[in-house]
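Supplementary Text 2. Reproducibility record for the structural model of the 287-residue chain.

All settings were left at their defaults, and a single model was retained for analysis rather than an ensemble. We include the record here because the model underlies the residue-level annotations in Supplementary Table 4.
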Amino acid sequence: MTEKTNTQDEGNSPNHFLSIKSLLNHLGFKPIESNDKESFYSNIFKAPKFVPKGFRLDHALDAWFDKTLGKGGNIVDFAKHYWPTLDPDEIHEKLASISDNFKYHHLFPIKERPKRKRKPIKLPHYQVDRIRKLELSCEVFDFLNESNLWEFADSNLVEVHYYFIDQMGKRKDFCAAGWPNENGGWELYAKNFRSCIGPKGMSIFQASTRNITIFQEFTDYLKNRDQLYALYSSILVLNTPQFISAAIKRAGKYNNVRFYLDEKREGYKEAKIEVQGSLPNCIFLPL
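Retained model, structure tokens:
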């Protein structure tokens, strides 16, 4: 008896010439935001909570990353998550059948590539190296100064030094202004980079059991902290619109609630209606 082998040349596999964007288009998903480098989608995979732009597609790498899953990869990795009941051979057949449809090819042409074994693509996995007080890094100081945030910086704002190891095993180091969230993660703020390293969560600073002030972002808090009603109030920073419901539950035990809200920001369109329905004692303040 001879062992069964797969005669399909990996260079001719569907993931070699079918782009992830072509597949998403076939499945009926349209990007909510797109440019030459990347596209963003929402609600690709079922999740308990809606995450705006939760799915990112890198055009150059033809790789994806989904915030709700905390995972990403190439087109085969996507297929495994999208069709979890299919085995590898069935996934291959399904992708091959889609790639045979020419109308998706002319929408997203792929250049000829040499037939070679392709390594799995991994998007950067950032890790925190060390935390320092502000003023030690000129890079962070210059950024905060240019953003008119330096004069507002307080002891909760620190320098977060972080890095990732690329596919060649080379370490790449970065530095950003950051602040902690209550789940042990770090919210980062730098030029051309906004993200969270570690678990996502809200940031809370306890100062009162009667009054609480809610901000959408930490920078909003910094710019308004010297207001009288913010000095004698607990502070709750959402960091992301996905924590609106959690913030409502947390603020429910306070007598006085103030919410600095910009409804035009992505993900906050219905926030005011949701908060008003659950927190009638909430006062909304403009940013």
